[in-house]
Every structure is written in C-alpha cells, then in structure tokens.
Amino acid sequence: MEYHNPVLLNESVESLINRPDGTYIDVTFGGGGHSRLILEKLGADGALFGFDQDSDVLENVPDDNRFTFVQGNFRFLKRFLRLHTVNKVDGLLADLGVSSHQFDAPERGFSFRYDAELDMRMSPGMTKTAATVLRSYSAEDLQRIFSDYGEVRNAKTLAKHIVTQREHRAVKTTLEFVALMEPFIRGNRNRYLAQVFQALRIEVNEEMEALKTLLEDTLEMLKPGGRMVVISYHSLEDRLVKNFFKTGNFKGEHEADFYGNIKRPFKLITKKALLPSAQEIKVNPRARSAKLRVAEKK
Fold first, then answer.
1. What's the whole-number mean pLDDT along residues 122-141?
2. Residue 60 CB neighbour total at 10 angstroms
3. Cα first-last separation, the chain
4. What is the per-residue pLDDT for 1?
5. Are 87 and 81 in contact (CB under 8 A)?
6. 8 Å CB contact between 54 and 119
7. pLDDT value at residue 73
8. Can you tell me whether residue 186 is helix, strand or coil?
C-alpha cells in the first residue's frame, strides 16, 4: 500500500533529537518514514513510540525492540503513555494531515475522484461521518466549517443550498455530493472541491480539537530541553502551533505571572517556519503547503 514520502524528513528528525538515548514519540506514524530515521539516530538505550489510529499502518511497524506501536489517536497521548509507564519524554514529532494511501483508497471517501460512501473517518471506530455532517448540521455550522477549515469563498451560499436540497434527496456518496455542488463551484474546479472535502475531513475527525489537546499535553509531558516538531499543511493548524509555541496559548496573547513576568514556556528553535525546498516540492508535490516549526521546552 502506497504512503506519501515523508515531508521535510531530515530537517524534522535532526531538529527533534538532542538526546540519542532519550524517549521520543512519532504521533503520526503513517508509513513509518519519520520513525525509521529517528530509530537510525537513536542510541541503544533510546526509545520511540509511534501513534496512529489507522489499522492499515500495522504493516509498516519496524521490527526494533526500541520501538512501541500504539494504535490510537494522539489526543489520548497521555493515557496511552501512562499505560507504558512513561510520564516525561525528550521529544515529539507530528506530521499533520492525511496519508496518500487514505486519499487513494476509494472506500474511505476522502477523495472526490472516486465514487464512494461519504465517510472520511481516519478510524473506523468513530461514529460521525461526512454524510452525518451534511445531513444533520445547520446551515450556519456548515458555513463555519467550509469557511474556517476550507476557506471556501461562497461558503454561506453552498451551506444554504445543501440544507435546502437535503430535504428532497439524501446525499450519501462522494459523487452525489459533487453533483450537488456543481452549480456553485467557483474558480479552479479541483481546488474548490479539495477545499470543501478538506473542511469536511477536518470536522469529521475533529482535527483542530485533537491538535489543541496534543499541544497542551506535550507542554506538560516534555522534559526541560525536550523538543516538539510539527509539520502542518493548513493555515489554521500552523497558526495554532505558532501561537502556542510563542505564548503557551492558542490566542497568541502574552500572559504574565503575579510579578509581571511574561510567560514563555518554549524557546523557539525556528523563528520562522521552515519550508521545503523547490527540489523537494518537485519530487513530492504534497510538500508544497508544508510548514515546519520547532520549539524547546524551557
């Protein structure tokens, strides 16, 4: 099964590891590309935990006694690590987004290129699907997710149309949904559809909520000097990461203690986001929108 080439592979792993015998986490294991390079850099006493909620990735788990795979969403990071008697870690890497194999598996419903059930769940254990969202959300909520998560320009018009049309016909498949949207597509057709499908995927999988939980948990679990490395592909994700690294909160507003001292829980290793080279983008088009940020716990 095909997985995407890891984006910013060397840059992310080199930024992550400053203690070769430490304990690290790859919270988005996927094809295992980042994890394999991390294991190459670790010493004999190092340890790596890989998290992924998708059972398809099991075939990629490396045969290495320093590696432990955890099948679960990274929003439950603390719970799973405590089951393995781990309370503090030396570093964490997150490569956000969706793997190529998920897009290319028609039955998952992530892509408008195939006719499939409107699913979009990254884990089959989840109950909410894309069809559920389209069937039950109000026009206001649909507008919000299309606008915030997909930056769809005519989000309000599209949302109203969906709510009106669902009273007359059920939308259960990807191509039925595309047909419903057809009169409202603006600009580049593929880009427009990609934006709408992205917005639905983020909502179905509660990706923003999961990222917020991850950032807060990592701040608690990192040892002093430990590093967090995040590769994001969406402006909202990057803004959350940027603000949290800078101020310790998601609004990006500096907070002070009782004595007026500004709270800065992280030292910024990357003042500005690192971007992939033109050569990497040429070889791996998925890298085009990637941004890498690194912070070190004080």
1. 91
2. 18
3. 41
4. 45
5. yes
6. no
7. 86
8. coil
Q: Give the chain's length.
A: 298
What six digits make up the tokens of 75? 């929003």
Q: pTM of this prediction? A: 0.89
Q: Check whether 103 has a pLDDT greater than 60.
A: no
* Nearest CA among 3, 6, 90 for reference residue 43: 90
Residue 103's identity, in one-letter code, is: F
232-288 pLDDT tens trace:
999 999 999 999 999 999 999 998 888 888 889 999 999 999 999 999 999 988 889
Residues pairing with 26 in the sheet:
50, 93
| Domains of the chain, CATH where assigned | 9-100+207-297 (3.40.50.150), 127-204 (1.10.150.170)
> Given the structure tokens 């099991």, which residue do they identify?
58
94 forms beta bridges with 230
Q: How far apart are CA 105 and CA 281, in angstroms?
A: 23
Sheet holding 89-95, edge to edge: 67-71, 47-52, 23-26, 89-95, 222-232, 291-297, 266-268
48: which strand partners?
Answer: 24, 67
Whether the predicted pLDDT of 3 surpasses 90:
no
